[in-house]
Each structure stands twice: as structure tokens, then as C-alpha cells.
Design brief:
The chain has 449 residues and is of the alpha+beta class. The protein is 36% helix and 17% strand. The strands form two sheets. Strands 3, 4, 5, 6, 7, 8, 9, 10, 11, 12, 13 and 14 form a twelve-stranded mixed beta sheet that branches. It is elongated.
Amino acid sequence: MGAQESKGSKEDFSLSNDEKISLQSSFDAVISDSSRECVKNELLDQWSAKIDVELAAWLCDYLFTKNPGGVTFTSYVYFYNKFVKGSLSDQIEIINSFFSPQKEDLTVNTTDMLKYVEKIISSYIKCHGKHPKFLSWHAMLSTTTDDHLKNIAQAWLRELLYGTASSGKDTFSLTEPIGETVSFDDVEKWLNRSAEVLYMQKDLLLHLFRPEESIFCKTGFLMPSCVSVPGHLQFESLLDATNVILLNSALPPEYRQEWHFLFSTSIHGESFSKMLGCITNKGPTLIIVSDTLGNVFGGFAPVCWDLGAKFYGDDRSFLFSLNPKMGIYRSTGYNDHFMYLNVQQQTLPNGLGMGGQFGYFGFWLDAEFGSGHCSKSCTTFDCPQLSNETEFKVHNVEVWAVGKPPPTPQELGERPSVLEGNYEAKALLSMAGREEHSLGYREKEDLDL
């Protein structure tokens, strides 16, 4: 490891016929006809067009530094095999060489790893900018900034930066440690648990070395399709590409293919009843809240929102922060207070909340739209206080349904009541103190506190 060559020879890795053909094709595109060796400027230009310019330069410099006599097809294939098909130790050795070419001890600088992961993420976004799933979000996402890239890289590197014993709650208010030294073994353990980083890295390398092949990105694409935003709406989401990738990667796999737009205060106005009409009985949802101090946070609800004096949901639920830091906060297992939604109750809170208990929710949106609170501690989720102040003012709320929409009563062969599915009307009746008479004939579950 370190700056040493891998113990195996350049013939250790075998290639399939498809690999040989595509690698030969990509190599032929950047060689000198006379020498049949790779031309560095040609290679750099091709790779820089697809990925981050600095990452492309690191890859080219490594390849030509390791082969001072000239990059032949054999050495080109060896680099591909070592980085794409080699062990994690092989991959870490290459990454470390980008920053410390002469370094021979088996340690890695965490600041270097943070920068590398930022470049991988920015390259993934650049490489797939014309993919149909990215294009489906055209003009709706906020601009991805350097801060966004740093925040998602920190979220994915948390265990390496702060240690495996630390939780997102513990590290939310901490400053990123600068220039810490960790061992290859530590990096290997972290990388082995970092499916998103490994996926992006392999995907990018395949697009560089085998550009005519697009099979890999179809097997687990990290960006969902954006569905159900009316074309006439001039809608700009609270989210940027890194936010979508972070949240989509945290969802159960069956919900990662498409997101359906349901509600935004910038489109529908500041109306709690309107929000309920848009989000109730729409399947699993992501609720994103921004407050007037710039914090952005929210939660994933894995089951349909519905009115009732009861906590419900399951431990697939999670809370998250997107600004000033990114993080996913899972269930503690302490209780099952995952979701709560109610209106027009004299003895119970009226609004929407996730986690904790009455008065101490992980986050809470009051039915008198415009205010909310985030508790300093939440028993249900391992999360920090998500807003600057315990009580906050709402700036915007945005809701997305994830996965396929649930079947309608008609699709299930049921005969709906007049108000079935019209949740805005039901919410307005409830908030006015009037109840559907048919509800008296339906079984109501006791409040679970």
C-alpha cells in the first residue's frame, strides 16, 4: 500500500471481451498514431469535459507519474483494473497519491479525503447533467454551491472525521476537524460502509474508461425522476442536487425512483388546510421546512398522512437537516412517536409533528400556519435541535411524495364516500368544528401516548 505498487503484476486482472473492446476504443481516442502511447493533453481534455477539472487532473497525473516511460494500453488497462476492480486498499492508495505522491506511510489526511469526496460528488452531478432524471428537475433545483458540496461530503465522512462512536446529533454543532491523520485501515472501514461514495466513484471511472457503456448508472442511479410539477408553474425548490441525492440515498430502495411534487407554500400559499389537502393519503412523503433564520430541515414519513389523535408510522421514518449542516437522523428505538397530525382539538395539539412527544417534537408545524418548534432533545430520533431557536417562524414548506402513488379507492374496486380523498374539505370541516357524520360509524383507535 502507500506509494508502493500493488503486490500483483499487471496481468493479475482479467478482462471480459466487452471490457477489452471498450477500453481499446477509449484508449485509441487519446493516443499518438506514431507512438501508440497515450497523449496526456488529449486525455485530460476528454476527462475534463465529463468530470471536475481538478479530479481529471489528479487522475491523469497519477497515470503518467506511475508510467514515466509512456502510457501504453497495458498500463492504461492496469490503472483501470486497479481503481475499478482492485481492493479497497488499492483504491485508497491511488486516492492518497493524489495529495501525497511521495508519501510512503500508511496514513491519510482527513482534509484530503473531504476534498476528494467533494470532487466525486460534483463530478457525478456534472457527468450526469443531461441524464433524463437530472433533466426532469430542470430549472427547479437551487444552484449547487461549494458549501452544499462540503456539507454533503461532511455528512458522508462523519464517522471518519469524528470517529465511529459519534452520532449526527453529537457532531451537529462541532467544527470540522482540520488535517487529522487516520490509518488506511480506518479509511478502508469507512469506505466499506460508504455505498454512495463507492457507487459514484465506480460510475465515474466507467464513464471515463468505457464511455460508450452506460449500464452501470442504470443499476442504482442516485437521482430520482421529478414528477407531477405542472409545466406552467415557475417553481424553484428549496433543494439543490446534493440535497436530493442525500435524501434519496437515505430512503428505502423502493422509494428512490421518482418523487412527486405535492405542495409548496411558494405555490399554494400559507394554508394548513391546503397543505393537508395536498399531502394526505398520498403515500410516503418528504416534508422540507425552511425557517426565517435560514435553517432547512424536515422528515421522511413512510406511511400516509391522515388526521387522528394518535402517533403512528414506523421506524423507517427519519428526520434530517440540510442547512447549516446536512445529516440523516434515524430512530432511537425508544418509542414509536414517529408521526402525528391533528386539527380542531381542545385538549391535544393541532398541527403536524414528527418525533418526541407533545410540546417536545423533533419538528412541529402549528395548524395556525407560520410557526413551529424544534425540541432541544427528541426521544424518537437521534437528532439535534434542527432550528436555531426552539420556536421558529416558517419561511417555506415543501412536500414530495416518494415512490409510486398509492392506489385510489376506485383502483381498489371500492366505492368512495362523497368526501373520500377530498382531504382539504375534511380538514376545513374539522377546523370549523364540524365532523363528518359517517365518521361515527368508523372505528376510532385510542390515543397512544
